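User: Hello, can you help with two protein structures?

Assistant: Certainly.
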Amino acid sequence: MALAACGHAAQPVAAAAPYVQTSVASLGAIAPGEALAGVVAPYQNVAISSTLTEPADAVNVQEGDVVHRGEVLAQLDTADLEAALQSDVAQAQSDRASTTHNVFAGSLSIAQGVDGLQSAQTSALQAQANLTRDQTDLHRYQQLLRNGYIAEQQVAQQQTTVNDDAQTLRSNLAAVASARSNVTANGSNLAAPGLQSSTVQASQATEQVALANANQERVQIAKATIVSPIDGVVVNRNLNPGEYPGTRQLFTLQQVNPIYAILHGSGAQIAQIATGATATIVSTDAKRSQRTGMVAGVLNQIVPGSTDFQVKVVLQNPDSSLRPGMAVSGTVRLPGVHGIRVPQTAFTDDNHDALMVVQNGTVTTVHVAEIANDGSTSIVTGIEAGTRVVSNGQTSVGDGEKVAVR
């Protein structure tokens, strides 16, 4: 029996199936993000110059100084401007006195013209009455002459009187016409069109010109005080006391709170980014400081023909730890996506187009299409909810291999 037992061959022991970590694909939603790189840029970059030709009396800031809106950066000399202002004010006062004089003189001329017209009209009416009376007497004298009651000399004298009355009437009518022309030219009052009102208006216009010149001088004097239009930092100073401003740029200011992160991306990367989206920005230069901002705008290609687009993200920077020129990386939140969710580690390659699934204990490679990801979870098409997916797509198992699942 011992010899018979020794004659049978030993049976091989089956190898145990390897264990793999799996997860079940489920239906759900993710909030994907787009990773972009960029740099920090100032919120505003303000270049300050001056149109005045006055020298600088004082310059109050240095490069690197923090300034606030309304703070005086420099003061230009205003002695010439102050003298010109006083001259314009004095001229305006003189013109105002002339205007007052012209108002009184015009009112007097108008009143005298109206009185003269009335007097001429009265004289003309009196002359007309005298002429009518004397003509009546002449007709009566002529009748008496024909009847032989009066002498011819008396009739001749009456004819002379009538002729004198007619001449006087003509002279008075001419005086009425002249007085009426004078009233028409001067106007019936200073509010009506006429010579006197136009004289007053011209005087008032001269006064307004002087006042405008004075206001212009005041504006120039105000410009001599150069103030900061923003809260920011002085990054360039190009003016010293005693120097004339000329046409050059005197100061450059940068507003750094808030501040922009300018992210660069291709057309495919920025296609789903919308204004108002949330973005997380990390700066490696500022000890990897992380802060959240909002997309202020998506700019089209910067250089025509290129595929470089810009995403402007507004960030709060109260401690000024972010400075223009620092390199940053950002993740912009995209609209939520709903579909089949799988771990992002489940893809078998960098193209994210294949997964390994386990069916009845056997591994099978399935081709899928990634729709979106949030950095840890992906939405894919090509499999159904409930499919068991190998969590680590880089594990050393292949198609057709038997596995035990966890």
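That covers the first. Now for the second protein you mentioned:
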Amino acid sequence: MNAAASGHGPRIYLVAGEESGDRLGAALIHALRAARSDIQFSAVGGGHMAAEGVPSLFPLGELAIVGFAAIIRDLPAILKRINETADAVVAAKPDLLIIIDSPEFTHRVARKVRAKAPQIPIVDYVCPSVWAWRSGRARAMRGYVDRVLALLPFEPEAMVRLGGPPTDFVGHPLSEQVGQLRPEGGPASRLEGPPLVLAMPGSRSGEIRRMADVFGAALGQLAVQSGPFEVVVPTVERLEATVREAVARWPVPARLVTRPEEKYASFRLARAALAKSGTSTLELALAGVPMVTGYKVAGLEAVVARLLIKVPSVILANLVLGRNVVPEFLQEDCTAENLSAALAPLLSDTPQRRTQVEAFGQLDGIMKIGQGSPSERAAAVVLATIPGI
């Protein structure tokens, strides 16, 4: 029985697997309530959803698992939570299930729910990276996902090409931060005053330990080549000790910032950035900060990645722009010499710098920035997917 026939407001169950998904879920709950005040929510989530008045079935931290070895070690606990979550969703009889990112967890929940209660529509918020690797997942998703909400503008076309479920581009949450990330004086103002270089070696402790030494060596070489500059390392409180220990070995001093307002201020002032490939590259591009990127993974993961990854770049900014404007140095190419040589031209008004700045200027149109919030667009699609309302 759908919401309209039963006489109560729509019932929506949200399932997230990590903090980023919890934040997306909380923003979506807020937008859905603004559109319809009678919606009832249940969730597997974290503190952000709880702050919206939707507590979690169990603590989200139990699912914060990264890496092949950790998944194998914790498999029995993960499987227990998958079954528990699917059973809770089926028992709640919602009008819609929204799974949010973390496909290793949420997609298994969705498949079990579809098998036990095929009448429940399922929306997947955050398109899995089927365009990059394991493309067969797109077609498989048609069996248990009715609609996908994509954060990146090229994903709907990719899902059509790969035979996936209907997909709507709703926008990336980073697009709501552009006002805080960009300097009031425009891109040219970044060339005024002493240079500030952002160093972003990763958002997980393993990445930081793996990338910090090569980043520090690159910045040391850059200081010899280009003269003095300030280094700022944006991080979060839970990683501050790890980052502080790592940068203590650098040949140049580095200032850590953990509060959001400090991070935004450093982005507005930054002349250039040295970043690990990942979401941070899109954040820097939206801010208009020219960058050089690098990444290394362990030997086995590198072999697997080379076999599976099918995209011309691993840099989100490059993929969104559709061309490789940001230099990237991966694995054996990720050396201090390569990183510093590519970073040096970005500290002054050079063709290399202008190429990136001009390309980043196209992102507002590509990502629909200023055309409503991503959570509002996502809420509209969600409501249109609920039967009978």
